[in-house]
């Protein structure tokens, strides 16, 4: 089947899609956007988090055909005008990135959180990021990054 | 594999009738795991996310009608006052990403014994609405489930909505998991007080082949008139009745003995909280 | 020793930012699963559903007939050595006559789409004769037990490979026995506590699953882009299995999504290469999360019997222990894990009389090998539980009991090895104890947002633990790292290029290499080349050794480069700073760019730590370890004692890192390592029943979420080690070791339950 959607503001089209494929596979393997990661493909890790029509979802749990006509934004689409998004900049500065496999999904999740709640308290940060596993950092510096990005908003 | 994307309920039912072995997909949070892990290869998928009727919710006579395609996020944000037990349960489901996509209809469609939306439906006496090209029928939530991952849903049917009696009294839900978030229930429990009928609705999750009710606790003699404090013996008896109603097994998530024990604790605590709310409401 | 005080921005001691950070936050960093080549095929693996069976036949006909399938290969297609292994060559590339664990690879497929490859795998028929698996390690050691490696033609003991010290190996199902004897093994004492402790099988659970891309080369060789911990040990094993000389198997490190020990052994390296060579097309393999649980070794589950004897004042008189580690079906690094458990088995304490026996055992359970903490984790849970039990028996404060027996500089290990460097054991403990207590409330009660309590049943507890870990490779292993450093002038500025084969796995090694080159060469701009096998081995990114070893190699290569700069500039005792060459008095003699000019200076060198010696096979005596590292934890927990749910409220930790080369990264390692220890304490276990894994998914193998992790307080000490570069001490492993017993001690304090097993499950608490 053919899937047409906009990704990071550009119209995109993928052909010969197997209907059982996930949006994650389409993004990574067909549209050349490997930013969203594939740590579990069962919704448990959040490394594949992307915006689907403005809502953060696990791309691994969206069937390719469900993305027809949708607007998708991935981590690759967040930097504006060549500059890093403030959330990306904060992750970089606070040491919230180690291996970085969780990072793209977390950045989308934090981007969404700060868009909804500009100055979240720690418990709100934790509840909002509970769907994003990180095995390297113990999360403390990720919380630092959220606080830093929020303080600059 | 084929992919159908009906835009209306009528189209969806027609596709389902024409392809009874096609698999509906709503939020995909159960279906896609099965596809990704190669556990399931249906001949076709029927995407329900474009069916507007399934995403509607609102008052329907004496009931609150929640479309099968309403995601948990909306239940939490918009229905907490009218369906408090269900909203409490929804908040414990998966993660924000899962709650953004996952639906009540999908939870019923999967009919997992661990489905967290089920206990509050049982406790509140909810009714499940099923439709096919043959017509529409309703089934009490307590009769919907027939076994682990099995339900009365016929091959040509879809779940269209859940009808909840507008909460006449306080409701509670609590869930035990071995992690602080994003965890499948080891066991869960819902209670719904009905001060009008003077009954105690219950729902037990993850402790039997289907969600269960503690029917013996239905008529627990609570001091409805005085709205006085609950006596310890009564609370203890409620815990025992709930634990006795469970039919748990040992599995990777916990032992049968622990589940029974924990259900007793959850039952005592949630009844006490709900009763406190009832008393406050009366004061 | 030489301590270099950094004056260079982004040099040693500065929290320099990661050079790969921007790519990682924008999603452009290429992990091994992100690789792509034109015309590439997808590989998939057929794995055994049985933990122990004989293979009567394999029928690949139906799989080959599927359109889109390009190759289906079995054991008979392995071109070279049919087995591989880190220390002992015993693990089949593809199972031949028998399978020894559930998930053992039997056949591999290359196809045009992952789904085609999966369908082809499903069409392969294997006729198994299923045998009863050997699953209980104690029973496996008993005389007459069925042998995991009994069939003659599949004899795993066929080869003995380097690298890996020449380990004394056991017989039958015994992989290795390490005894340690010191003083009087039959000593007696007035106060005695004994216990049996158990550790479940933990998984590294890195997020980036096993994956890589093999590209066939024109010279008949293969180029492999792979996430691994040690390129050269992979190269050696892959080349042997492909029957190719090492120079025809070229490895390049692809982005690594965490490692923690799970990438020390091969996974899909040989498989992808075989498929690429057979089809003549690039082949990509990416495991699913479920397959990943079968695709790498795990932390050894262990049963540990301990007896501690002490004087009435708390002074330890003796420790006796029997430690049995289940190594599963193949050797992997079990021999070295056993040695760690034995030699570090009393913990960071001075004990005059020691009798420890540690055993590694073959079973038909999943193979176990390296994981962060490597044998020290299992022992620490047991000895720290014992120290608390002893404190209780003596009526002593548990911190004071530990401090009284604390190892000190100049003390002796049970192996007889003198502890030369700083050993601030008592100080680390007192530091965590003297921190202000955790705040009274908590953001979340046990159960989190699942509404299980409003305070009912919640009891707070506090617990302490300290651990010890060896850094670098031990027991006489020739442990080295190689670095190539080039200084050249680009656009009028002197810049450095550092090239090593050391695996950046997330820990920040690329940053450390840059920092060292900046400090040593006085340049701002340092590029770290992608790690590959075109430069000599760097050894493994394990044993907390890379900052020490590859850091040491980069420093040494930089100093050779600097010497040539001084020679060119004619300043015998020069220094380099801020792009200038200084003389001994500190006066600027020339600009570095002018001295280097058009003639780049390049040096390649190997760095070795001081030698170690093997353990005496009877007594376990010997200077086996290079460096010791210590960390202490204080855990504060809230326990819902009626439901058995635990919320860690706060973790405080103190660790001596010798020199914090990158303070931010050091703290990151400590926090991340601590999280893995909390995971082992509370939730992480691969459940294996009758040799079958029951929870190979992230739905049921649970790792801590952000809601499970408490705020951490990290206190970093910098007591320089006289032998290591900049005085640094390995950082990665110690935090994982003592966090587990500290959390369990806190739960015991809250509940009074004995809790001899981790992970602690709710049913253990409610009893
Ligand atoms: C990471 C993760 C965590 C989770 N955590 C929880 C949890 O804590 N508690 C919990 O209860 N569940 C949990 N789940 C399971 C899942 O999210 C829920 O069951 C959810 O309600 C499924 O809804 P969905 O819309 O995504 O269903 P889908 O996956 O789209 O469908 C599920 C099933 O229902 C059928 N179906 C869907 N809609 C209809 C309909 N209208 N009529 C008939 N059949 C239909 C489908 O054919 C399929 O069989 C989790 C899942 C994931 C991936
Ligand atoms: S890959 Fe989608 S949630 Fe893990
Ligand atoms: S940085 Fe490695 S998983 Fe988060």
UniProtKB/TrEMBL annotation, chain A:
PROSITE patterns xrefs: 2FE2S_FER_1, 2FE2S_FER_2
GO molecular function, one term: metal ion binding
Domain 2Fe-2S ferredoxin-type span(s) in chain numbering: 1-78
Keywords: 2Fe-2S, Iron, Iron-sulfur, Metal-binding, Oxidoreductase
Record-linked CDD domains: fer2 (cd00207)
PANTHER family the record matches: OXIDOREDUCTASE WITH IRON-SULFUR SUBUNIT, XANTHINE DEHYDROGENASE IRON-SULFUR-BINDING SUBUNIT XDHC-RELATED
The protein's name in its UniProt record: Carbon-monoxide dehydrogenase small subunit
Species per Swiss-Prot/TrEMBL record: Spirilliplanes yamanashiensis
TrEMBL record, chain B:
Keyword Metal-binding: no
SMART domains: CO_deh_flav_C
Presence of the UniProt keyword Iron in the record: no
InterPro entries associated with the record: CO_DH_flav_C (IPR005107), CO_DH_flav_C_dom_sf (IPR036683), Diverse_Substr_Oxidored (IPR051312), FAD-bd_PCMH (IPR016166), FAD-bd_PCMH-like_sf (IPR036318), FAD-bd_PCMH_sub1 (IPR016167), FAD-bd_PCMH_sub2 (IPR016169), Mopterin_DH_FAD-bd (IPR002346)
Domain FAD-binding PCMH-type: 1-169
UniProt-recorded Gene Ontology molecular function terms: FAD binding; oxidoreductase activity
Any Pfam family the entry gives: CO_deh_flav_C
Key words of the record: FAD, Flavoprotein, Oxidoreductase
PANTHER family: XANTHINE DEHYDROGENASE SUBUNIT C-RELATED
Protein's name in the database: Carbon-monoxide dehydrogenase medium subunit
Origin species: Spirilliplanes yamanashiensis
TrEMBL record, chain C:
InterPro entries per UniProt: Ald_Oxase/Xan_DH_a/b, Ald_Oxase/Xan_DH_a/b_sf, Ald_Oxase/xanthine_DH-like, AldOxase/xan_DH_MoCoBD1, AldOxase/xan_DH_MoCoBD2, AldOxase/xan_DH_Mopterin-bd_sf, Xanthine_dehydrogenase_dsu
Region Disordered, annotated ranges: 139-182
Signal peptide: none
Family annotation (Gene3D superfamilies): Aldehyde oxidase/xanthine dehydrogenase, a/b hammerhead (3.90.1170.50), Aldehyde oxidase/xanthine dehydrogenase, molybdopterin binding domain (3.30.365.10)
Name this polypeptide is given: Carbon-monoxide dehydrogenase large subunit
PANTHER family: XANTHINE DEHYDROGENASE, XANTHINE DEHYDROGENASE SUBUNIT D-RELATED
NCBIfam families linked: pucD (TIGR03196)
Any one Gene Ontology molecular-function term assigned to this protein's record: iron ion binding
Domain Aldehyde oxidase/xanthine dehydrogenase a/b hammerhead: 26-132
């Amino acid at each position: 089947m053919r899937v047409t959607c906009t990704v990071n503001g550009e119209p995109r089209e993928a052909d010969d899609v197997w209907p059982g494929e996930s949006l994650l596979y389409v993004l990574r393997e067909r549209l050349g956007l490997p930013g969203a990661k594939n740590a579990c493909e069962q919704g448990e890790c959040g490394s594949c988090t992307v915006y689907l029509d403005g809502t953060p979802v696990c791309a691994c749990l969206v069937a390719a055909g469900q993305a027809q006509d949708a607007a998708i934004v991935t981590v690759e689409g967040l930097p504006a005008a060549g500059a890093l998004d403030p959330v990306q900049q904060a992750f970089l500065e606070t040491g919230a990135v180690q291996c970085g496999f969780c990072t793209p999904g977390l950045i989308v999740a934090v981007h969404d959180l700060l868009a909804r709640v500009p100055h979240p308290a720690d418990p709100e940060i934790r509840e909002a990021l509970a769907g994003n596993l990180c095995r390297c950092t113990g999360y403390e510096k990720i919380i630092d990054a959220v606080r830093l990005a929020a303080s600059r908003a | 594999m084929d992919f159908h994307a009906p835009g209306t309920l009528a189209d969806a039912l027609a596709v389902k009738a024409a392809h009874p072995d096609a698999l509906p997909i709503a939020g995909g949070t159960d279906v896609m795991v099965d596809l990704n892990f190669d556990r399931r290869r249906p001949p076709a998928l029927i995407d329900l996310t474009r069916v507007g009727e399934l995403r509607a919710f609102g008052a329907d006579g004496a009931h609150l009608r929640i479309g099968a395609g309403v995601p948990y996020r909306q239940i939490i944000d918009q229905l907490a006052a009218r369906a408090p037990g269900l909203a409490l349960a929804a908040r414990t489901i998966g993660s924000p990403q899962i709650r953004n996509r996952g639906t009540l209809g999908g939870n019923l469609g999967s009919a997992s014994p661990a489905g967290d939306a089920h206990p509050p439906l049982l406790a509140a006496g909810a009714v499940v609405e099923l439709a096919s090209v043959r017509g529409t029928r309703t089934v009490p939530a307590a009769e919907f489930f027939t076994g682990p991952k099995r339900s009365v849903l016929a091959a040509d049917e879809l779940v269209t909505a859940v009808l909840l009696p507008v909460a006449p009294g306080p409701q509670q839900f609590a869930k035990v998991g071995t992690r602080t978030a994003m965890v499948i229930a080891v066991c869960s429990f819902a209670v719904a007080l009905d001060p009008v009928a003077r009954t105690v609705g219950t729902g037990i999750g993850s402790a039997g082949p289907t969600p269960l009710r503690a029917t013996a606790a239905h008529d627990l003699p609570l001091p409805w008139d005085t709205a006085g404090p609950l006596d310890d013996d009564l609370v203890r008896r409620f815990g025992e009745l709930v634990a006795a109603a469970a039919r748990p097994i040992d599995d990777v998530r916990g032992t049968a003995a622990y589940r029974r024990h924990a259900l007793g604790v959850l039952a005592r605590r949630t009844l006490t909280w709900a009763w406190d709310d009832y008393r406050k409401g009366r004061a | 020793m030489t301590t270099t005080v950094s004056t260079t921005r982004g040099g040693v001691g500065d929290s320099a930012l990661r050079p790969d950070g921007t790519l990682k936050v924008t999603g452009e960093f290429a992990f091994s699963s992100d690789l792509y080549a034109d015309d590439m095929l997808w590989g998939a693996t057929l794995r055994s559903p049985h933990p122990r069976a004989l293979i009567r036949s394999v029928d690949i006909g139906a799989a080959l007939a599927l359109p889109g399938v390009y190759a289906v290969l079995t054991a008979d297609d392995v071109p070279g050595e049919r087995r591989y292994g880190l220390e002992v060559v015993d693990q089949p590339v593809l199972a031949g006559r028998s399978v020894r664990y559930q998930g053992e690879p039997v056949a591999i497929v290359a196809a045009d789409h992952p789904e085609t490859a999966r369908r082809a795998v499903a069409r392969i028929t294997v006729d198994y004769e299923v045998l009863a698996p050997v699953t209980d390690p104690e029973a496996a050691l008993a005389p007459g037990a069925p042998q995991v490696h009994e069939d003659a033609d599949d004899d795993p003991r066929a080869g003995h490979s380097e690298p890996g010290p020449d380990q004394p190996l056991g017989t039958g199902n015994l992989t290795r026995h390490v005894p340690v004897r010191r003083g009087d093994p039959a000593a007696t004492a007035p106060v005695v506590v004994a216990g049996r402790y158990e550790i479940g099988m933990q998984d590294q659970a890195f997020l980036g699953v096993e994956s890589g891309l093999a590209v066939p080369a024109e010279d008949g060789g293969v180029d492999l882009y792979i996430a691994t911990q040690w390129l050269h040990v992979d190269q050696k094993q892959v080349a042997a299995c492909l029957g190719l000389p090492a120079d025809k198997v070229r490895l390049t490190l692809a982005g690594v999504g965490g490692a923690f020990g799970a990438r020390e052994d091969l996974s899909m390296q040989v498989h992808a290469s075989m498929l690429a060579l057979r089809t003549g097309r690039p082949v990509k393999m990416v495991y699913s999360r479920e397959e990943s649980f079968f695709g790498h070794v795990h932390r050894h589950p262990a049963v540990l019997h301990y007896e501690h004897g002490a004087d009435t004042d708390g002074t330890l008189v003796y420790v006796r222990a029997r430690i049995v580690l289940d190594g599963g079906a193949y050797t992997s690094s079990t021999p070295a894990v056993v040695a760690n458990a034995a030699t570090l088995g009393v913990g960071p304490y001075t004990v005059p009389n020691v009798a420890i026996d540690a055993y590694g055992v073959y079973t038909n359970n999943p193979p176990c090998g390296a994981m962060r903490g490597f044998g020290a984790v299992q022992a620490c849970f047991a000895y720290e539980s014992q120290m608390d039990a002893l404190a209780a028996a003596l009526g002593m404060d548990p911190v004071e009991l530990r401090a009284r027996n604390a190892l000190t500089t100049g003390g002796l290990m049970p192996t007889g090895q003198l502890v030369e460097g700083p050993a601030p054991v008592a100080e680390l403990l007192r530091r965590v104890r003297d921190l202000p207590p955790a705040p009274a409330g908590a953001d979340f009660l046990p159960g989190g947002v699942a509404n299980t309590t409003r305070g009912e049943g919640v009891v707070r507890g506090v617990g302490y633990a300290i651990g010890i870990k060896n850094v670098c490779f031990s027991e006489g292993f020739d442990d080295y790292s190689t670095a190539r450093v080039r200084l050249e002038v680009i656009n009028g500025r002197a810049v450095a290029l550092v090239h090593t084969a050391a695996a950046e796995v997330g820990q920040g090694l690329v940053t450390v290499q840059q920092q060292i080159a900046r400090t040593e060469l006085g340049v701002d701009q340092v590029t770290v080349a992608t790690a590959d096998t075109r430069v000599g081995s760097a050894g493994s990114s394990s044993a907390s050794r890379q900052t020490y070893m590859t850091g040491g190699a980069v420093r040494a290569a930089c100093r050779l480069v600097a010497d040539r700069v001084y020679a060119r500039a004619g300043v015998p005792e020069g220094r380099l700073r801020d792009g200038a060459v200084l003389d001994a008095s500190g006066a600027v003699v020339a600009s570095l760019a002018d001295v280097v000019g058009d003639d780049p200076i390049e040096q390649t060198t190997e760095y070795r730590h001081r030698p170690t010696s093997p353990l005496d096979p009877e007594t376990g005596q010997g200077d086996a370890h290079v460096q010791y590292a210590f960390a202490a934890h204080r855990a504060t927990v809230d326990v819902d004692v009626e439901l058995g749910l635990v919320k860690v409220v706060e973790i405080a930790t103190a660790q001596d890192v010798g020199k914090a080369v990158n303070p931010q990264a050091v703290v990151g390692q400590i926090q991340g390592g601590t999280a893995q220890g909390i995971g082992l304490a509370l939730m992480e276990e691969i459940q294996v029943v009758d040799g079958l894994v029951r929870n190979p998914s992230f739905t049921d193998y649970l790792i801590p979420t952000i809601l499970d992790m408490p705020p951490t307080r990290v206190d970093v000490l910098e007591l320089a080690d006289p032998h290591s570069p900049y005085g640094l001490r390995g950082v990665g492993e110690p935090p994982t070791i003592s966090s587990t017993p500290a959390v369990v001690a806190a739960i015991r304090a809250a509940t009074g339950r004995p809790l001899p097993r981790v992970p602690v499950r709710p049913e253990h608490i409610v009893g």
